[in-house]
Amino acid sequence: xxFSGVFPVYDLVFKxxxxxxxxxxxxxxxxxxxxxxAIKMAGKAETWIPMTTNGWERNIITSKGFAITxxxxxxxxxxxxxxxxxxxWKTGLSCSTMAEIDFPDGSKLAFxxxxxxxxxxxxxxxxxxxxEFDLKSDGEPTFTPAVG
Length: 148
Fold this sequence. Notes:
Largest sheet: 8 strands, antiparallel
Structural class: mainly beta
Number of helices: 1
CATH topology: Factor Xa Inhibitor
Strand content: over 45%
Oligomer: single chain
Helix content: under 10%
């Protein structure tokens, strides 16, 4: 695929495995009515100060993790939205699943995650019911670069 330039966030395609960690390709569903997306990377560094650096420390990133925060509206009847909302009151492995993000340039991020529903439906009386959650990475993701 030939791609260059900037792109709007709405061109990202999010999918969630609606059968948890047992999800197969046909179980990967978009999540309707999500309005915002944020990804936060967190690297952990090993720090040391060898005698040969005149007191200056050295660092190497020894591990990484990430969380993706999605905020949007509760859409009853959408399989991806219903699946996430159904995890609000669950714990443990019941909240573990697979997720994917397809980027406009053709690259793809696939990963296992723990779904942490942070707002299953509270807001002002005149507002639409929200659905807000974090996808917290669980292990090493698979990033497939765009071809071409």
